[in-house]
User: What shape does this take?
Amino acid sequence: MKSTSIFTALFFLGIFSFIAVAGCKKKTVSYKIVGKAIDDTFKKPLEDATIRIEGLVSSTGSYTLISNTFTDAEGNFEFVLPRGNYSSIRFTAEKQMYYENSTVLNVSDLNPEKDNNVEVLTTARSWIKIVFVNDNGTSTDRLSFRKQQGKINCEGCCDSEFQIFDGAIGGTVICANDGNSTFSYLYSTNGNSPVTNSTMTTPYDTNLVEIHY
Assistant: This one.
């Protein structure tokens, strides 16, 4: 009888220990991301865009790809982010004829108990092609060109340094810009007073400007 009581006590002790251990296990933490991509050129949702999701790995200090998702007709996207060894998450919008642009969220700011909102803005690509034509040139002619206003830090963007064209031929400058945005520049010939011009560049297209001097 005594041995039976001991066995019963040990049995229930084992069950209670199992429940206690199971209850102490960490829950799997995840974050629901609710996002929207915006076409900032036309001020509307960006549909059918790829959203690249990357995490900044704390140990390496570099971003690694977590997943890709896509926007719907209203520019919306959702993603469930599993908890990982990331300090921040980068969301990059990609679409043909648009610039890649990113928004970064700190993981410490995310809440596993509610939706976490993120907005990614991007702009349509455009270009300007400026052709300088020297009508009666000589080998001693000099043309100086410099961008004043326009998109910066992109593939095909022109910097703000002077470009010099020597000789009778003239020159051509091609610069990337945001669509529906102003691109302004100045130029001077043979040390004369500079001339300033500007153009509103057309989305998805190249604006041609021809200047004779």
User: Anything to note?
Assistant: The chain is about 10% helix and 50% strand. Residues 9-25 have pLDDT under 50 and may be disordered. The CA atoms of residues 147 and 160 lie 5 Å apart.
